[in-house]
């Protein structure tokens, strides 16, 4: 299991900046590729901050599972972003190996890469090309019934406000839903102008242990402060005074109800350990 020193905001940036999901990694030639890619195995299991740079993509100590999620984050309504549980067919080496990745774009792609509206799609395409070229990756997707949590409105109703349309300087654009994620303050993660699906995605998997499906029937956009249980990427122990995911959701006037549902999975058909350089 990979440990993490990365805050929630960095985790989402690394994992959830993709735009759409390719049916199969061999279904077509990506429109964009990194011009130069360096991949080196790193024996450390302590993730470090990284992601998109003005000239490319650089992440030290990247577990392969997060690279896969960064390349294949769908935007289909049925998909739930929640982490490694979305991926099937990973060999043991892929579960336990991390890489230092330093990828550079070409001069011809620089203008588009530095356009916030174009960059997420380009990143997805380039990461898919990197995985196909260096890891010989072939994937497909399928639906599978599994335990989930339904996110519903608790008695008394929601305890967060309708979006004001404002967000602080330095907030990051969430390309998938058009909202913003603000910097953590005092261990609290702030979301601005987001649909509830953003919250259900953030709660899924890593934090709750299951996919979380939005069943609130709340159709607006909201400003939401998510509690400090997320900091550091670990759930607090049972005897801790810290919030659990359930109490944090309760503080928002919502609750998580156990259920079963169909969840979209990324299935690996073929992958090889890359040669490093």
Secondary structure: elements and pairs:
Elements: E1 3-4, H1 8-15, E2 36-42, E3 46-47, E4 51-53, E5 56-63, H2 64-71, E6 87-88, H3 92-96, E7 98-104, H4 110-113, H5 119-135, E8 138-153, E9 161-162, E10 172-173, E11 180-185, E12 188-194, H6 196-203, E13 212-214, E14 222-226, H7 245-251, E15 254-270
Parallel strand pairs: 1-3, 6-15, 8-13
Antiparallel strand pairs: 2-7, 4-5, 5-7, 8-15, 9-14, 10-11, 11-12, 12-14
Helix pairs in contact: 2-5
If you had to describe this structure to a student in words, what would you say it looks like?
The protein is α+β, with helices and mostly antiparallel strands and 277 residues long. It folds into two domains: 3-143 and 265-270, no CATH class; 145-262, no CATH class. The chain is 21% helix and 32% strand. The protein has seven helices and 15 strands. The chain has helices at 8-15, 64-71, 92-96, 110-113, 119-135, 196-203, 245-251, and strands at residues 3-4, 36-42, 46-47, 51-53, 56-63, 87-88, 98-104, 138-153, 161-162, 172-173, 180-185, 188-194, 212-214, 222-226, 254-270. The strands form four sheets. The protein has a five-stranded antiparallel beta sheet, with helices on one face. Strands 2-7-5-4 form a four-stranded antiparallel beta sheet. α2 (64-71) packs across α5. 38% of the residues are buried. Mean pLDDT is 78; it is low at 1-27 and 230-241.
């Amino acid at each position: 299991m990979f440990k993490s020193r990365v805050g929630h905001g960095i985790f989402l940036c690394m994992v959830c900046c993709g735009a759409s999901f390719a049916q199969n990694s061999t279904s077509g030639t990506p429109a964009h590729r990194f011009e130069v890619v360096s991949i080196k195995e790193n024996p450390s299991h302590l993730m470090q901050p990284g992601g998109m740079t003005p000239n490319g993509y650089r992440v030290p100590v990247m577990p392969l599972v997060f690279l896969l999620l960064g390349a294949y984050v769908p935007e289909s309504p049925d998909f739930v972003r929640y982490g490694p549980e979305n991926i099937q067919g990973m060999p043991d080496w892929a579960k336990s190996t991390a890489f230092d990745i330093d990828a550079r774009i070409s001069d011809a792609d620089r203008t588009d890469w530095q356009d916030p509206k174009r960059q997420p799609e380009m990143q997805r395409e380039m990461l898919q090309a990197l995985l196909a070229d260096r890891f010989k990756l072939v994937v497909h997707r399928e639906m599978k019934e599994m335990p989930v949590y339904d996110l519903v409105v608790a008695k008394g109703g929601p305890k967060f406000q309708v979006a004001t349309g404002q967000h602080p300087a330095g907030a990051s654009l969430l390309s998938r839903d058009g909202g913003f994620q603000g910097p953590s303050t005092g261990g609290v993660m702030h979301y601005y102008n987001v649909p509830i699906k953003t919250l259900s995605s953030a709660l899924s998997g890593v934090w709750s242990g299951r996919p979380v499906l939005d069943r609130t029937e709340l159709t607006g956009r909201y400003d939401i402060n998510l509690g400090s249980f997320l900091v550091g990427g670990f759930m607090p122990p049972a005897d801790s005074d810290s919030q659990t995911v359930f109490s944090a959701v309760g503080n928002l006037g919502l609750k998580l109800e156990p259920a079963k549902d169909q969840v979209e999975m990324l299935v690996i058909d073929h992958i090889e350990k890359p040669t490093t350089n």
